[in-house]
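Aim 2, interim progress: modelling of the fe (ii) ion-bound target.
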Amino acid sequence: MRHILIGSLLILFSLLAKTQEIPAVYSNISIDEKGLFLKLEDRKIYAVHRKDLFQFEDLYSNIKGTNLGLDLDFKFPELNGILYYGFINYQDGRYPQPVYFRESSQIVNGKAQIPIRDNLSGRYDMVDWEKNGKAILGYRIVASNGMIFYDGKVAFSFKDNLFTAEPTVIEGPFVNQLSHKGAMISFTTSKPVRSSILCNNKVFNNKKKSLTHEIKLDKLQADKLHPYKLKVGDFEYEFEFKTAPEPGSRKPFTFAYGSDSRSGQGGGERDIYGTNAYIMKRIAALAKLEDARFVQFTGDVIDGYDTSRDRMNLQYANWKRAVESWWHYIPFYAGFGNHEAYNFIFHDPQTQQNYMIDHFPFATDSGESLFQDNFCLPQNGPHSEDNSKYDPNPDKDDFPSYKESVYWYSYDNVTMVVLNSDYWYAPHGLNVSSGNLHAYIMDNQMRWLQKTLNHLEKNKDIDHVFITIHTPFFPNGGHVKDDMWYHGNNNFRAVVKGRFYEKGIIERRDELLDLIVNKSKKTVAILSGDEHNYNLLTITNKMVRYPQGYQYKKLELSRTFYQINNGAAGAPYYAQEKTPWSENVRNFSTQNALVLIDVDGNKISVRVKNPDTLELIDEYILRK
Ligand SMILES: [Fe+2]
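Predicted structure of the complex, ligand included:
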């Protein structure tokens, strides 16, 4: 009996070890029969258990029809609170929203009911479900502490006196990767289904049954409005998008930029579990109102820093839901920030210190892979940091992928290059565990940037290149202690398997500036965030860029350059701090802000608006 027990324990351990193979890029991380641990000199610190109280899919996938309405089971016994519900009338208005009914239901031990027949018929049937035998409901889960947890959707049918929950488009459809030829339409359904989109008299099919769908619409005419009709089961959703003009047409257009929409204070929709849905929604509405052709949003979309995949997925879902009604029409390009971190945490009870590293396996269960799962972004970035000179294992992928977090795209004569300065990010204790530093761009991404900028310099259709990155090169309020400055301490750098990178953070910042400012003529500005404020920094060669007594090579800048920081999409504010470059800062504001960039041939002007009050915060010309 004892042998059987030991034998089974060994099998279990080897299974665990197999599923949790430690990436070779870490140091002092190991696994034993008690689990994953960080090895300090005299003791082991085990990873904090992730404690999933719920599975994200249970918030929408267990809905059963009765002859009274719908029974919802969130499989979350600790959840008590209120369920608001109401129809979404897709025929009434271009940006469908749920209209909540005057009464709500109680959520008791994770279960609730929507009494459609008794409450939502007759004069409350504004979607004609009684006539059509089908409709779509929105529902809002509010926990007993008052926090809004999730805004769900459920399609239902009514036949032979029985309601039935039907496969529902719970996210999307979203317009992504817009070009002059077409776009990628993505959406998520509550059940695995086939789907199709009718556009330009052609049917674009998803042949396999799936939960997440990405359908490419191509061979469309440039610079034209294209209505599209998504069909899932008996339900149809009609929206439209405008293809980009032919590259190099040089027609005037506007795009929008923002970042940092993780949850804010104040209650209500300023924190729909992990995201400031209130400000995001205002941003999306303002961007569309201003006829922005796309929205670039670079990092900290959610609170993140979590050990639970399901909590992270709920947060991403809430962010997407907040802007969904406008994303039906124009693309939103997300970037990666420090709050997209999905971690293993090792808590040392003796010193109270936390050690945090990027979750693995990297390919399927890391911060990077979660981001890839949640968005449909261009895949033209570098592969990973594998095969750099720090790669401990050249024959094998040991690093996370850059897929969809480093990429570029163009619209007419403008290119946006999206960088990831929180790749393989280890928030605490990387000197012990190894990992990348907040704001540090590692070698392969540098090389890719160089190659990409060279390529764009030669492209005759492109006049202007923007570099967007979560972390400012010159922080001004909130992150003077880190970003690409660390209070002027160049010692900070990435560590791979115990090996410290040769270049410190300030040297690396200079290498980036050299590529972007000196070696490229088309680059216009850095669009950054992380600091929760708006400001414009004019970077000149005269601007003080080094700490006193800086011993490393100093970079000469060949021209004036700009850093537009806009992390004012709803995360808690930071005030301005004193820095060596403070006098070059213009219009530092803690108002919520959306940057609107107007491009007209060679000319680029900027307007900054408060998406809440619609006040104009700043206005200037960047390029004449
Ligand atoms: Fe950040």
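Residues 299-300, 337-339, 470, 530 surround fe (ii) ion (CB under 6 Å). The radius of gyration is 25 Å.
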